[in-house]
What we know:
- The chain folds into two domains: 1-44; 56-102.
- 78% of the residues lie in helices and 0% in strands.
- It has helices at residues 2-40, 56-76, 80-102.
- The N and C termini lie far apart (72 Å).
Amino acid sequence: MSRERALRRAAREAQAQRRRERHERAQRRAARRRALVRKMVPRRGRTGRLYARRRFAERMAIALVAALAVGFVWWQFEDLATRLALTVVIAVAAPAAVVLTFDRRT
């Protein structure tokens, strides 16, 4: 009786060992595949700069247009509340206008 149990246990352990080895091979294969894909796909991450997506000339043009718009508002309107309200509108609407104008999504 104990010999039969020992044979069954040995068969179970051998099967478990084969299953473990097959699982480890699959994991190594998946890791190699991930490494290959990671190497082939270009990285798109942060560059460490605040406005790295835009060229210097574009940033200067955006700043110049915003400054001109604020200057025009302060030159054209006399009421302080209107000036402040329109300045806030320009500050809030400028990012949306920049994205719509210079959008580089492909």
